[in-house]
Design a protein that fits this description.
The structure is a single chain. The chain is α/β, with parallel strands linked by helices and 227 residues long. The protein contains eleven helices and seven strands. A seven-stranded parallel beta sheet has the order 1-2-3-4-5-6-7. Strand 3, helix 7 and strand 4 form a beta-alpha-beta unit. It is elongated, with a radius of gyration of 21 Å. The N and C termini lie far apart (89 Å).
Length: 227
């Protein structure tokens, strides 16, 4: 009982600082259920977090959105899928897009999340106006998502489109033309002709097209004499 009394004397700010060191969402949930004061501490710790990664956690749309909603200082959001990862859907992306922190996000990863479509991605990126780094590799997005990204994310520096086989050269052209700060683009596994990448380099000569050997091949092709 004496130990409980000592713990009860800890201010909420100190509890929040302690809870920042908890990396397990399961632990946070258990701590939050202890009492109202500890629940406030968990909320304050979430409000201080600049990075949240749900990769590898079995989370649903509602749970992720609820945590993101309290992460007022969030800059980096990782919802990548792994063998045990979350299966977020368009509904989850919609819920997340309503969080206050979304306009301040600089990095979002949706790598390998196959349960989302253009509808959810467009909703999310349309409010992510500070976005600099985006990973949508391994998803089924189309040019519609790229159009939205290009129109909403003027500060975009890097984008991963790994194996996005429904994206065409039209989407890539629009993106590179619109995003003047774009430095790197990963196109591994895409169904786009080499000529497209030559054209992208014409638009933005400093653009890094990954994988790196692809850029080398593109530059080599571009030097071939035209007969």
């Amino acid at each position: 009982m004496a130990e409980d009394a000592e713990i009860d004397r800890l201010p909420v700010d100190l509890l929040a600082h302690i809870f920042l060191f908890l990396s397990s969402f399961t632990d946070l949930a258990q701590v939050s259920s202890v009492c109202r004061k500890w629940r406030q501490g968990v909320k304050q710790s979430l409000a201080r977090k600049e990075c949240l990664s749900f990769a590898g956690w079995k989370m649903d749309d509602v749970s992720i959105a609820r945590l993101v909603a309290h992460a007022y200082s969030l800059k980096d959001l990782d919802i990548s899928r792994s063998c045990w990862g979350c299966q977020i859907t368009d509904d989850g992306l919609y819920r997340i897009s309503l969080a206050k922190c979304i306009s301040n996000l600089t990095s979002i990863s949706l790598w390998g999340v196959t349960g989302i479509t253009d509808k959810g991605v467009i909703q999310l990126v349309s409010r992510s106006t500070s976005l600099q780094h985006l990973n949508v590799g391994g998803t089924f997005i189309t040019d519609e998502s790229l159009f939205a990204i290009a129109n909403s994310c003027p500060h975009l520096k890097t984008i991963v489109l790994w194996s996005c086989r429904h994206v065409t050269q039209s989407g890539l052209f629009f993106l590179v033309n619109k995003c003047k700060k774009l430095e790197s683009i990963n196109v591994w596994g895409m169904r786009v002709p080499v000529d497209c990448f030559i054209s992208l380099l014409t638009i933005s000569p400093a653009l890094q097209i990954k994988p790196s050997d692809l850029r080398l091949n593109v530059e080599t092709v571009s030097l071939w004499p035209i007969h």
